[in-house]
Amino acid sequence: MPAQEPFKFEPLGFATVASVSEYAVDAWQRSLLYADVMRERGNQYLAHLAEETPNVLSFRFERVMSGRDLKRPVNYGLVRIVPPEGVEIDGRKRPFVVVDPRAGHGPGIGGFKAESEIGVALRAGHACYLIGFLSDPVPGQTVEDVMRAEAAFLEKVIALHPASEGKPVVIGNCQAGWQILMTAAVRPELFGPIIVAGTPLSYWAGWPGRNPMRYAGGLLGGSWLTALTSDLGAGRFDGAWLVQNFENLNPANTLWTKQYNLFSKVDTERERYLGFEKYWGGHVFLNDVEIQYIVDNLFIGNGLATAELVTSDGLRIDLRNIRSPILCFCSMGDNISPPPQALGWITDLYLDDGDVRAHDQTIIYALHDSIGHLGIFVSGSVGRKEHQEFATNIELIDALPSGIYEARLQEKGPQTLHPELAFGDYVLSLERRDLDDVRRIVKPDPGSDRRFAAVARVSEVNLSLYRTFVQPWVRAAVTPQSAQWLERLHPLRLSYELASDRNPWMGWVAGEARKARESRKPASADNPFLQAQEMISRTVEASLDQWRLWRDAVQEQTFNAVYGSPWVQAWAGLNATDAKEPRQHPGETPEHQAFLAEKDERLRDEIAEGGLLEAGIRATAYVGSLRGSVDERGFNLIQRLCKHCLGVTDLSAAELKQAIHKQADLIRLDPEAAIAALPRLLARADAGGIRLWAETIDRILTASGPLDAAAAGRLREIKAVFDEAAHQGTGVVAPDRDAGREAAARQAKRPRRKRQPTEA
């Protein structure tokens, strides 16, 4: 019988025992540290709500104006951002005003980090202001009251910056975007360029299978539930319900990924997690009349995009009245305000490209490839790229002639032409687009609009039934105490409070976490149980994602089946056989048609007015109109030419904008007559200035690349006109350039005929 070999522990056995022990210690310590972060999160939540003016700004600020002091008081206020040490503000540059969304969270997200909308504007030398708000609304305040307050705040900012070369740049994030556009439609004279970031403006729009939030109103039977929720809150709507809607969009992130990311990286994620949760848990309230107006007129009624809203004093809120450039910044990865909702108002409002130009509107859109909704305002990478370029090129944006453009950013590299003419690490180009380009993004669907129109009608009926038969009983039963208890028992609020030091069961966590931190022993990256943990996490996340896809598909199919039914549409007053779209474009008034005809006639009368500056810009616009894009390098060359070469140092940004707009309009109106009039404009200039402009036009137009054949032909035509004018002016080949600069400066100071005020 063979002798048995002595028993041996295999190395794998040793490794397994060691791995189990290592992972068990690591997991227990991470659990304690995770629980401690959740305890800190709860304490931070309670401390934040107890602040007099809760916000998440990372910049110091000074109060400028309180909305509570207005004739119609509101819970909004205006603050000035104190520039960080080493940042110099240029009093001639237009100020920036950031308006943060009141959509469930508190203010400050626009200045949440150093690399933010506020941060990049400060570094560009602009004074910055924030329009924020308190947690509780003033009883009875309305959306219109907030609009009036925003107008009053902008009047104050304008008064504080008399030396500014232009009206304030206003940035509206998410919900604040549609709010400032409504204000700008009523008070257009107060606004410079407007940037709306992640802002839904056309609420029925969306891509099938990708944007489920828009179906919520129909699946709930309309806005009656909004009224019930406000009634249960004794006239206040808890913003935590809005935050709950956002969280329901992505259950994998809400229920697992966000918390697991903290648990698995608890040694490094604490600060970032608590910083975000300070904003995410800063729930605020709206008055019942505010939220009802928003849900009825925007979310369900979708009345803003087709000029259907009218103020209490009879003013129609028509976005076509806005005279400032509107830059819509949205992202393909945003499932809260997707591109169709951010850009659909353009196709809702305008019939064609001529309609856009007839209303003298400049619309720019910028599409990010992947960033999520909050990343549009919070992400440091977006702050360093998109917001940095928008801030440093705001005068280019303001000077753009009317039309639709897409903002494109290209990183500088060895192949970049004239990189010294572009700010920062990127080159901003604004490429001409037409309404069909926007339609390809939005993908308008008349059938879908018909279903949403049915929802709007059903909502009106259900809300009327609730207000007539149920609301009186609910309001009679609700007390301030019951409203307070319902507020505290909201699931999101409970998740913060139950993990705070108010819960006696959390008393031991801080001490144990301190011990774990002192004896911390993380598992090695190759630990098999740590790898299994990651695999399980991915499985859970994938399972929740699959459940979300199934849920969203069921909701969409249910919505389409119910509101696509001919019976439901007929009951809602819609004729299923009617080929007419359920939402018509807003019509033109005879007064506006007469205004346009008068404007064109006035332009024709002024076609021969101006001098060297007007001739140079007209010639540039004539050739550049064939390029299909406007580049920051060319615009910066024009500014340098005017201020440094021609000596027109007192040419303001507003005057340059006016000249660019007028000459572009003339080229569009009658290019042949506009170019034929060039010799008459150049006859008033010195030959030195003429030759300088002729040399520079080529540089301006080729700063971003060579011209195509058609544009090159126009450039030769222009050069011939300028050369002939230079010879006619002096009879010499090389005139004195200093004399040319002096003549150009005198010409720029010549009094110009003022333009008629645009239609409000």
From TrEMBL:
Against InterPro entries, the record matches this protein to: AB_hydrolase_fold (IPR029058), DUF3141 (IPR024501), PHA/PHB_synthase (IPR051321)
Start-end of Basic and acidic residues biased regions:
735-744
Stretch list, region Disordered: 731-760
A Pfam match is DUF3141
In what ranges is there compositional bias, type Basic residues? 747-760
Question: Which residue positions does the secretion signal occupy?
Answer: none
Protein name per Swiss-Prot or TrEMBL: Poly(3-hydroxyalkanoate) synthetase
